[in-house]
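Good day; I would like, with your permission, to put a structural problem before you. The record follows directly beneath this note:
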Amino acid sequence: MAEDRLLGGVSGLFSPAYLIARNVVPIIGDEPFEIWVMEKTGVVLYNTDASEIGLNVFTDPRYDQFPKMKLACEKIAGEPSGMTSFPYYETGSDKIINRKVFWETLTQEGNEWKFIWSGASE
C-alpha cells in the first residue's frame, strides 16, 4: 500500500434541519421569537414546525393563500439582509398573525441560507 495512492472515498449526507436545530434551539430557548432557515430557492431547511421542512415557499400549494408571505420571501431571497412583515399562522395554531421578520444571509460553499428571525408584530 503506497501512502500517496487514493484507495477509496467516503461520502456523507446530513440533514440541514438537524444541523441547524442543534445550533439554533439552545440559543433561542424560550425567547418570544422563532428562527427558520430558507435556501435562496425558497426551500425551507429548518422551521420550528417540522411539517414545513423541505417545502418550497414559492411553489408549494400550502402557501398559496399567503401571497404577501411569498412576496416577502422573494425579498428575503433577493437581498442579503433586511426586515419585512407578512401574515401567516401562529406556530402550532390555525390563528393568522402578522409576523415581523428580520434576516441575514449565510453563504458557505456556494450555498446561500437565509436565517430569519420571526415574531408577532404589535
